[in-house]
Design a protein that fits this description.
452 residues, mainly alpha, Rossmann fold
Length: 452
């Protein structure tokens, strides 16, 4: 454990000015280590019970250490205090004379105790005892080194003797192995000569067998080539037949799918046509009959005027659009961007779509009409996963215009079903009119949506 460091303080108020240099015949820096340890222990023991005025400033932190740690951790500071402060050294001597007088006997038979007492009391024989302790410490060190060297030498001699014994054993074992090896070598030489004869015989037999094997390999290679060619021909025929079968299956599946789709389309058209006819008949009955079972009324027999024939004219106002949307099973097809860019072009395309979809959802809920909203799919990054209830939202595929999708929707409807197409595109309006649909300008639908 490293010794703590302490700052060297200035002179204490309780110390005399001559404590910084104390004359002594002993060279404290040349004290042997055991003597320094003994002085540190004596000074540390006295330090714990010494009056604070007798303790130098730099030793007061050491005085706070536990007694068992004071000499070990602060020994260097204690010895420095004994060397530099006569007051502290006198106080230590007084404490030892009072509490441990045996440690101050200069005539003690123990040279270490006598040397420590002489150094602390400043006795003139101190130098003699320091030299004696130094010599004894040196002698003890030399004896320890000599004893260690003797032990090492004895250990090395024992190791050398063991190695000699092992070498002798190895030499004997080597001789036995050499003799056995010579016997085995002779036996192997004999067997080698015998094997040489057999090897020559086997070599001749192997050459004959190799020639026979070569002939067999040639015949086998020819047979393999023939069988491979035949296998390849059979594989080609099988691949051809398999391709024909797969094409036939695919054609049959396409035919079945086409027939199924055509049947489904016919069924849908037929159902819509029946619903349309039923609604039209009901509407005509409601319009032509004044009452259940009633006949012509006098107003019906007036001459000089004729009633409207029920032909829907050009749709120019929301009221006319409402009459169309009141028709049974009517289908409203809306050209999305044509409407939004007419009504609110300042919004982003995404916001335009959202606004129109939600407005049409309200209109569909109020009129009961089937509503299909068509947008151009070009440039649409994210197609909505679902639309509000009552509105079918379609995006044209890559390379397909929304106008073509609208024409296809009108063509797909059965004849007789009322179809209303909202667009301001004249070409689209003319083409759907020829197909029997009712074109409505985008401004009319926007005016109607403004009342939703």
């Amino acid at each position: 454990m490293p010794e703590p460091e302490f700052d060297q303080p200035a002179d204490d108020a309780g110390e005399s000015a001559d404590d910084s240099t104390v004359e002594s015949s002993v060279d404290w820096s040349a004290l042997p280590e055991p003597l320094r340890v003994r002085l540190a222990e004596l000074g540390a023991d006295a330090l714990g019970e010494m009056a604070k005025v007798d303790v130098p400033q730099h030793l007061r932190p050491v005085a706070k250490f536990a007694p068992t740690k004071r000499a070990r951790l602060g020994g260097v500071q204690v010895v420095a205090g004994l060397r530099d402060s006569a007051n502290f050294r006198t106080a230590v001597v007084e404490w030892l004379r009072k509490n441990r007088p045996s440690t101050l006997e200069v005539t003690s038979p123990d040279p270490m105790t006598a040397a420590a007492a002489a150094v602390l009391t400043g006795d003139e024989v101190a130098l003699h005892y320091v030299e004696l302790v130094t010599r004894r410490v040196g002698d003890a060190t030399l004896r320890a080194e000599r004893d260690a060297a003797v032990v090492r030498a004895e250990r090395l001699e024992s190791e050398l003797e063991r190695l000699r014994s092992e070498r002798s054993q190895l030499d004997g074992a080597t001789e036995r192995v050499r003799a056995d090896a010579e016997v085995e070598l002779e036996r192997l030489r004999k067997r080698l000569r015998e094997q040489g004869v057999k090897l020559r015989e086997a070599k001749d037999a192997a050459e004959a067998a190799a020639a026979e094997v070569h002939k067999i390999q040639e015949r086998t290679a020819d047979e393999v080539k023939r069988l491979s060619a035949e296998r390849d021909r059979e594989r080609e025929r099988a691949e051809t037949e398999r391709g024909k079968a797969q094409r036939a299956i695919a054609d049959a599946e396409v035919a079945r799918q086409s027939a199924r789709e055509a049947r489904q389309a016919d069924e849908v058209r037929l159902a819509l046509l029946v619903d349309t006819l039923d609604g039209a008949v009901t509407g005509l009955r409601r319009e032509l009959a004044l009452g259940e079972g009633a006949g012509p009324r006098p107003a019906d027999l007036v001459r000089g005027a004729s009633a409207s024939q029920g032909v829907v004219g050009r749709v120019e106002d929301p009221a006319a659009l409402d009459r169309l949307l009141a028709l049974p099973v009517v289908h409203l097809v809306v050209d999305g961007y044509n409407v939004t860019k007419t009504g609110y072009p300042e919004l982003s395309l995404s916001d335009q779509r959202d606004r129109l979809v939600h407005q049409l959802a309200v209109l569909a809920a109020r009129t009961g009409a089937e509503v299909t909203l068509v947008f151009d799919g070009a440039g649409v990054v994210a197609v909505p996963a679902a639309a509000p209830r009552g509105v079918r939202v379609l995006f044209s595929d890559p390379g397909v215009l929304a106008d073509d999708v609208i024409r296809a929707l009108v063509t797909a409807e059965p004849e007789g079903r009322p179809v209303v197409v909202v667009t301001s595109d004249r070409a689209v309006a003319d083409s759907v009119r020829r197909r029997g649909a009712h074109p409505v300008p985008s401004a009319v639908l926007l005016a109607r949506l403004g009342r939703v």
